[in-house]
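Sample 3 of the quickstart, ligand iron/sulfur cluster:
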Amino acid sequence: MNGTIFDIKKFAVHDGPGIRTTVFFKGCPLRCAWCHNPEGISPEVVQVVKTHKVGCRSFYHLEPVGRIIAAETLIQEILSDKVFMEESDGGVTFSGGEPFMQYRFLLEMLRRCRNMGIHTVVDTTVYTPTEYLLKAAEWTNLFLVDLKVMDEALHLKYTGVSNQKILHNLKVLSKRGIPFRIRIPVIPGVSFNRANTEAVIRFLKHLPVSPHGIDLLPYHNTGNHKFQPLGMKNAFQNMASLNTDELEDMKRQMESAGFEVHIGG
Ligand code: SF4
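Result:
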Protein backbone atom coordinates (compact mmCIF):
# COMPACT_ATOMS: atom_id res chain seq x y z
CA MET A 1 0.00 0.00 0.00
CA ASN A 2 1.23 3.50 -0.88
CA GLY A 3 0.61 6.92 0.66
CA THR A 4 1.54 10.48 -0.29
CA ILE A 5 3.53 12.55 2.19
CA PHE A 6 5.29 15.90 2.01
CA ASP A 7 7.71 15.71 4.93
CA ILE A 8 9.11 13.60 7.71
CA LYS A 9 10.33 15.54 10.73
CA LYS A 10 12.77 13.70 12.97
CA PHE A 11 13.34 14.46 16.66
CA ALA A 12 10.11 16.46 16.94
CA VAL A 13 9.38 17.54 20.52
CA HIS A 14 6.10 19.46 20.03
CA ASP A 15 3.93 16.81 18.39
CA GLY A 16 3.07 14.65 21.39
CA PRO A 17 5.02 13.15 24.30
CA GLY A 18 8.77 12.51 24.14
CA ILE A 19 10.90 12.58 21.03
CA ARG A 20 8.85 11.78 17.95
CA THR A 21 9.05 11.20 14.25
CA THR A 22 6.31 13.24 12.60
CA VAL A 23 5.01 12.20 9.20
CA PHE A 24 3.12 14.84 7.21
CA PHE A 25 0.40 13.42 4.96
CA LYS A 26 -0.69 15.31 1.87
CA GLY A 27 -4.29 16.40 1.37
CA CYS A 28 -6.56 18.57 3.49
CA PRO A 29 -10.31 19.27 3.19
CA LEU A 30 -9.94 22.63 4.96
CA ARG A 31 -8.63 25.91 3.57
CA CYS A 32 -7.50 27.82 6.66
CA ALA A 33 -6.67 31.40 5.74
CA TRP A 34 -3.61 31.26 8.03
CA CYS A 35 -2.31 27.85 6.85
CA HIS A 36 1.44 27.56 7.34
CA ASN A 37 1.65 24.21 5.52
CA PRO A 38 -0.03 25.08 2.20
CA GLU A 39 2.11 22.44 0.50
CA GLY A 40 0.04 19.89 2.44
CA ILE A 41 -3.33 20.94 1.06
CA SER A 42 -3.27 19.29 -2.37
CA PRO A 43 -3.50 15.49 -2.14
CA GLU A 44 -1.21 15.16 -5.18
CA VAL A 45 2.53 15.49 -5.61
CA VAL A 46 2.85 18.88 -7.32
CA GLN A 47 5.69 20.58 -9.14
CA VAL A 48 6.70 24.07 -8.08
CA VAL A 49 9.00 26.52 -9.81
CA LYS A 50 12.09 27.30 -7.73
CA THR A 51 14.23 30.34 -8.48
CA HIS A 52 17.93 30.72 -7.76
CA LYS A 53 19.84 33.93 -8.27
CA VAL A 54 23.50 33.90 -9.19
CA GLY A 55 24.71 37.47 -9.39
CA CYS A 56 22.11 39.31 -11.45
CA ARG A 57 20.92 36.18 -13.29
CA SER A 58 17.91 34.07 -12.25
CA PHE A 59 17.74 30.34 -12.82
CA TYR A 60 14.53 28.29 -12.64
CA HIS A 61 13.89 24.63 -12.08
CA LEU A 62 10.91 22.46 -11.21
CA GLU A 63 10.89 20.73 -7.85
CA PRO A 64 8.34 18.16 -6.61
CA VAL A 65 6.44 18.87 -3.41
CA GLY A 66 5.63 15.56 -1.80
CA ARG A 67 6.39 11.99 -2.64
CA ILE A 68 4.60 8.69 -2.92
CA ILE A 69 5.90 6.22 -0.39
CA ALA A 70 5.21 2.55 0.28
CA ALA A 71 3.99 1.61 3.75
CA GLU A 72 6.97 -0.70 4.22
CA THR A 73 9.47 2.05 3.31
CA LEU A 74 7.84 4.48 5.70
CA ILE A 75 7.87 1.89 8.47
CA GLN A 76 11.60 1.38 7.96
CA GLU A 77 12.17 5.17 8.19
CA ILE A 78 10.15 5.33 11.41
CA LEU A 79 11.93 2.30 12.87
CA SER A 80 15.32 3.93 12.32
CA ASP A 81 14.37 6.37 15.15
CA LYS A 82 13.01 3.73 17.52
CA VAL A 83 15.89 3.98 19.99
CA PHE A 84 15.17 7.71 20.56
CA MET A 85 11.46 7.01 20.89
CA GLU A 86 12.06 4.31 23.50
CA GLU A 87 14.48 6.37 25.56
CA SER A 88 12.16 9.40 25.65
CA ASP A 89 8.75 7.69 25.86
CA GLY A 90 8.11 9.17 22.42
CA GLY A 91 6.78 7.63 19.25
CA VAL A 92 5.36 8.51 15.88
CA THR A 93 2.93 11.31 14.99
CA PHE A 94 0.85 11.36 11.82
CA SER A 95 0.06 14.92 10.81
CA GLY A 96 -0.63 16.87 7.65
CA GLY A 97 -2.50 18.29 5.81
CA GLU A 98 -5.17 16.09 7.28
CA PRO A 99 -4.05 12.47 7.78
CA PHE A 100 -7.63 11.17 7.54
CA MET A 101 -7.65 12.22 3.88
CA GLN A 102 -5.62 9.02 3.38
CA TYR A 103 -7.66 6.98 5.78
CA ARG A 104 -6.65 3.51 4.61
CA PHE A 105 -2.95 4.36 4.54
CA LEU A 106 -3.24 6.00 7.96
CA LEU A 107 -4.92 2.90 9.38
CA GLU A 108 -2.25 0.67 7.91
CA MET A 109 0.53 2.80 9.42
CA LEU A 110 -1.14 3.01 12.82
CA ARG A 111 -1.73 -0.73 12.92
CA ARG A 112 1.84 -1.57 11.93
CA CYS A 113 3.39 0.93 14.35
CA ARG A 114 1.32 -0.24 17.29
CA ASN A 115 2.09 -3.88 16.51
CA MET A 116 5.77 -2.94 16.81
CA GLY A 117 5.21 -1.28 20.17
CA ILE A 118 5.48 2.30 18.88
CA HIS A 119 3.37 4.97 20.63
CA THR A 120 1.03 6.60 18.08
CA VAL A 121 -0.37 10.12 17.88
CA VAL A 122 -2.67 11.51 15.18
CA ASP A 123 -2.66 15.28 14.72
CA THR A 124 -6.02 15.96 13.07
CA THR A 125 -8.86 18.38 12.41
CA VAL A 126 -11.29 15.45 13.06
CA TYR A 127 -13.11 16.72 9.96
CA THR A 128 -13.70 13.13 8.94
CA PRO A 129 -16.48 10.51 9.18
CA THR A 130 -16.95 9.45 12.80
CA GLU A 131 -16.55 5.77 11.89
CA TYR A 132 -13.08 6.50 10.46
CA LEU A 133 -12.11 8.24 13.67
CA LEU A 134 -13.32 5.38 15.85
CA LYS A 135 -11.59 2.78 13.73
CA ALA A 136 -8.31 4.74 13.90
CA ALA A 137 -8.77 5.13 17.67
CA GLU A 138 -8.25 1.37 18.05
CA TRP A 139 -4.60 1.93 17.08
CA THR A 140 -4.03 5.48 18.37
CA ASN A 141 -2.67 6.38 21.81
CA LEU A 142 -3.50 10.09 21.59
CA PHE A 143 -5.29 12.47 19.23
CA LEU A 144 -4.14 16.07 18.91
CA VAL A 145 -7.30 17.84 17.77
CA ASP A 146 -7.37 21.30 16.21
CA LEU A 147 -10.16 23.48 17.56
CA LYS A 148 -9.91 26.53 15.38
CA VAL A 149 -12.85 28.81 16.13
CA MET A 150 -16.18 28.18 17.90
CA ASP A 151 -18.44 30.51 15.90
CA GLU A 152 -19.77 28.45 12.99
CA ALA A 153 -20.03 31.35 10.53
CA LEU A 154 -16.45 32.45 11.28
CA HIS A 155 -15.24 28.86 10.97
CA LEU A 156 -16.87 28.58 7.58
CA LYS A 157 -15.47 31.93 6.49
CA TYR A 158 -11.88 31.25 7.54
CA THR A 159 -11.53 27.49 6.96
CA GLY A 160 -14.05 26.84 4.18
CA VAL A 161 -16.03 24.28 6.23
CA SER A 162 -18.54 24.26 9.09
CA ASN A 163 -17.26 23.23 12.53
CA GLN A 164 -20.30 21.03 13.34
CA LYS A 165 -18.67 17.75 12.33
CA ILE A 166 -15.55 18.68 14.30
CA LEU A 167 -17.51 19.50 17.47
CA HIS A 168 -19.57 16.31 17.08
CA ASN A 169 -16.45 14.17 16.72
CA LEU A 170 -14.87 15.79 19.76
CA LYS A 171 -17.96 14.91 21.79
CA VAL A 172 -17.73 11.31 20.54
CA LEU A 173 -14.05 11.04 21.50
CA SER A 174 -14.83 12.42 24.94
CA LYS A 175 -17.90 10.23 25.56
CA ARG A 176 -15.88 7.14 24.72
CA GLY A 177 -12.95 8.18 26.89
CA ILE A 178 -10.57 8.22 23.93
CA PRO A 179 -7.53 10.34 24.91
CA PHE A 180 -7.23 13.67 23.11
CA ARG A 181 -5.49 16.99 23.54
CA ILE A 182 -6.81 20.25 22.11
CA ARG A 183 -4.70 22.53 19.91
CA ILE A 184 -5.95 26.04 19.24
CA PRO A 185 -4.34 28.09 16.49
CA VAL A 186 -4.47 31.58 18.00
CA ILE A 187 -5.20 33.85 15.07
CA PRO A 188 -5.62 37.63 15.41
CA GLY A 189 -9.11 38.70 14.37
CA VAL A 190 -10.37 35.09 14.35
CA SER A 191 -9.71 33.04 17.49
CA PHE A 192 -7.67 35.54 19.52
CA ASN A 193 -10.43 37.19 21.53
CA ARG A 194 -12.21 36.74 24.84
CA ALA A 195 -15.53 35.62 23.29
CA ASN A 196 -13.90 32.70 21.47
CA THR A 197 -11.89 31.70 24.54
CA GLU A 198 -15.06 31.68 26.65
CA ALA A 199 -16.89 29.64 24.01
CA VAL A 200 -14.03 27.09 23.94
CA ILE A 201 -14.11 26.82 27.74
CA ARG A 202 -17.91 26.37 27.76
CA PHE A 203 -17.71 23.63 25.13
CA LEU A 204 -14.86 21.75 26.80
CA LYS A 205 -16.41 22.05 30.27
CA HIS A 206 -19.54 20.30 29.02
CA LEU A 207 -17.65 17.29 27.71
CA PRO A 208 -18.01 14.17 29.86
CA VAL A 209 -14.24 13.56 29.80
CA SER A 210 -11.85 16.52 29.63
CA PRO A 211 -9.00 16.81 27.15
CA HIS A 212 -5.52 15.91 28.37
CA GLY A 213 -4.61 19.56 28.00
CA ILE A 214 -4.70 22.52 25.65
CA ASP A 215 -1.91 23.80 23.41
CA LEU A 216 -2.19 27.42 22.30
CA LEU A 217 -0.42 27.81 18.97
CA PRO A 218 0.41 31.47 18.30
CA TYR A 219 -0.05 32.61 14.70
CA HIS A 220 3.22 32.87 12.82
CA ASN A 221 3.86 33.91 9.27
CA THR A 222 6.85 31.65 8.60
CA GLY A 223 4.89 29.86 5.87
CA ASN A 224 4.29 33.03 3.83
CA HIS A 225 7.00 32.30 1.29
CA LYS A 226 5.41 28.93 0.40
CA PHE A 227 2.26 30.31 -1.23
CA GLN A 228 3.56 32.00 -4.35
CA PRO A 229 5.52 29.00 -5.78
CA LEU A 230 2.38 26.88 -5.26
CA GLY A 231 0.29 29.41 -7.19
CA MET A 232 -1.82 30.04 -4.06
CA LYS A 233 -2.97 33.29 -2.50
CA ASN A 234 -2.12 34.06 1.11
CA ALA A 235 -4.97 35.98 2.73
CA PHE A 236 -2.82 36.67 5.80
CA GLN A 237 0.20 37.93 3.86
CA ASN A 238 0.51 41.12 5.93
CA MET A 239 -0.41 39.69 9.33
CA ALA A 240 2.38 39.96 11.92
CA SER A 241 3.29 36.90 14.00
CA LEU A 242 2.10 36.79 17.62
CA ASN A 243 4.60 36.64 20.48
CA THR A 244 4.07 33.88 22.98
CA ASP A 245 3.79 36.38 25.86
CA GLU A 246 0.73 37.93 24.14
CA LEU A 247 -1.09 34.67 24.91
CA GLU A 248 -0.55 34.76 28.67
CA ASP A 249 -4.00 36.22 29.44
CA MET A 250 -5.71 33.59 27.30
CA LYS A 251 -3.66 30.90 29.03
CA ARG A 252 -4.61 32.21 32.50
CA GLN A 253 -8.30 32.35 31.52
CA MET A 254 -8.24 28.69 30.50
CA GLU A 255 -6.17 27.62 33.49
CA SER A 256 -8.64 29.24 35.87
CA ALA A 257 -11.31 27.10 34.22
CA GLY A 258 -9.30 24.06 35.32
CA PHE A 259 -7.38 23.13 32.16
CA GLU A 260 -3.69 22.38 31.80
CA VAL A 261 -2.53 24.87 29.17
CA HIS A 262 0.70 25.14 27.26
CA ILE A 263 1.74 27.88 24.84
CA GLY A 264 3.36 26.52 21.71
CA GLY A 265 2.99 23.27 19.80
S1 SF4 B 1 -6.16 22.15 8.62
FE1 SF4 B 1 -3.96 22.59 8.70
S2 SF4 B 1 -3.15 21.91 6.72
FE2 SF4 B 1 -5.38 22.08 6.50
S3 SF4 B 1 -5.69 24.13 5.67
FE3 SF4 B 1 -5.89 24.26 7.91
S4 SF4 B 1 -3.86 24.82 8.66
FE4 SF4 B 1 -3.62 24.09 6.52
